[in-house]
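Subgroup meeting minutes
Present: P.N., E.W., G.H.
Scribe: E.W.

1. P.N. recapped why we're keeping a running log of single-chain structure predictions: easier to compare across weeks, and new members can see raw inputs and outputs side by side.
2. G.H. added today's entry (488 aa).
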Amino acid sequence: MQNNARVEYDYSVAKAFTFTAILFGIVGMMVGVTLAFQLAFPHLSNLAGEYGTFSRLRPIHTNTVIFGFTLSGIFAGWYYMAQRILKVSLKESPFLIFIGKLHFLLYFITIFLGIFTLLAGYTTSKEYAELEWPLDILIVIWWVLWGISIFGLIGIRRERTLYVSIWYFIATFIGVSMLYLFNNMEVPTALVSGYGSWMHSVSMYSGTNDALVQWWYGHNAVAFVFTVPIIALIYYFLPKESGQNVYSYKLSILAFWGLMFVYLWAGGHHLIYSTVPDWLQTMGSVMSIVLILPSWGSAINMLLTMKGEWQQLQTNTLIKFMVLASTFYMLSTIEGPIMAIKSVNAIAHFTDWVPGHVHDGTLGWVTFMIMAALYHMAPRMYGREIYSKSLMDTQFWLQSTGIVLYFTSMWIAGITQGMMWRAYDEYGSLLYSFIDTVTVLKPYYTIRAVGGLLYLIGFFMFAYNMYKTATAGRVLDKEPINATPVAA
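Output recorded in log:
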């Protein structure tokens, strides 16, 4: 793609979503660390009455991190990247600027209300879909607004070729639209019966059907929020930051279609040894194994983009963030399929290995990549140099240590749980009671909490560095350039 310096980009919406990424990141991670310490030291659950219990705080943690922090980072990346990739400014379309700002406003209101309704106890009790029906309607509205922004900018673009990152953003929009609409079909009980709370609803599905639709949605929420748009970010920011072209554009397209066709069938691995039909469980396991191919295709493509330029890891912290993010992507996308094998799942299911797997992906892959993207964007959005590169480097090592403490402690805890639950004596009686497993895991829960705290401290460093960059960083005469010219 040809560079066009005459286009003056509008970063107002990207800046707004950058703010909410930092705000909701702090809120979500603080709640997560609180929960981790509660599990290690249960008496901490009693400090705030019902509002401090695990059942109230856990959905706030997951929803704020997924819909608050992660989506904010994705939207910030879109409103920054799309203009530069498509060589068109939002300033050229007052309508699209209005759509972008309305998108942000409704989004912020939704997440704000979501936190408080969950704290008050209003929940559908469906994993990653806990928000009640009025908020679901708001989500659909601003998701459609984002779609208008996507196809609106594509429609007025100057760059004829659609870079692969745009493909991944389009897939995110279509995939989440389909998943969210079908899984969140619900009946507001007060509107139908005239009784009960207007914030209460029941699912349109029941029993096994509800479980199947829920985990078709739940696993693919990981696909189309934690994977596909994050790949869109790294395919743009790693080449831009390193000055290297993407190693293989063909591989990026092959991996894209592989993810699209395979990911949607893998959700059944959440329901192994349940009442759903055995063939669906087997298909979930098989498709999870097949999923290694497109996942590693993307990750290897990212790492090979740095071929011949590995020395940049010594001097550029953002490259370290993105390379380690790709490495964690590889780790989590081999770990998940292994856990989906039925014999392994017999040990792993319902154990702490599962949150260990989730967090090496979300902390190491998703959050590292979003922070790297925002760090790259900041000098170009605010016209100021990064305030402290040494603080950025300290943050990297502190958070990397936190992740390692987190997932290793949960791996050990999870396998310990699984083996203790399956241990029998010569008479066929269980060797251990449930409380025995809880007692033996306390040291690992403490290590997990410490790891989470280190990561949270690193995120505060990130927030401070971004704030100081926007307000006190050295003013730049011109936009930072790459080491060598690249496409896009």
